[in-house]
User: Which sequence fits this backbone?
């Protein structure tokens, strides 16, 4: 029997007064609550780590796309992977632990996400000019947020 079912079994057998006295209901509620909290999105790293390990390398793929344009299918696939990573990291900027409660923060995160989703679609279409065009919007999202928050 697991600890939890042993606990449930004990609760079922114990007289009501004893249950109240031991506060077992409270224990059960606490177990349920902590399981529920676990399912909410939460930051797994520091902001600095998110920026240097995910945002920077994936956005560099867009910023420097003209320097070494993708040629093979494999190159394009790599670019798809990086732009998708960038788009999803913009969503991470909005979860507890990374998010900051400012309108500017929300606006810049969404700007970054829109530019990155467009870049992901451009990579899937192997559209180099479209990727080059997106550079400005993407750069603006980084700069705006850094100016406002760092
Ligand atoms: C919504 C806000 C926001 C957006 C958008 C954003 N950043 Fe950041 N960035 C931050 C904050 C806040 C820090 C400071 C983190 C710290 O040091 O605690 C930071 C730090 C950084 C750092 C320095 C990390 C270090 O510790 O050295 C780099 C590099 C960086 N960002 C790159 C980018 C790039 C590239 C983009 C755009 C593609 C971008 N960021 C978009 C908020 C943002």
Assistant:
């Amino acid at each position: 029997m697991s600890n939890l079912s042993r606990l449930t079994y004990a609760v079922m057998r114990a007289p009501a007064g004893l249950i109240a006295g031991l506060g077992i209901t409270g224990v059960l509620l606490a177990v349920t609550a902590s399981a529920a909290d676990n399912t909410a999105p939460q930051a797994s790293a520091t902001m600095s780590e998110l920026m240097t390990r995910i945002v920077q390398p994936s956005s560099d793929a867009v910023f420097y796309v003209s320097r070494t344009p993708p040629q093979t299918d494999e190159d394009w696939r790599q670019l798809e992977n990086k732009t998708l990573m960038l788009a999803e990291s913009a969503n991470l900027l909005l979860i507890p632990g990374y998010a900051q409660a400012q309108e500017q923060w929300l606006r810049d995160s969404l700007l970054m996400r829109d530019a990155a989703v467009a870049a992901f679609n451009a990579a899937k279409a192997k559209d180099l000019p479209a990727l080059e065009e997106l550079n400005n919007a993407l750069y603006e999202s980084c700069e705006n947020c850094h100016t406002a928050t760092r």
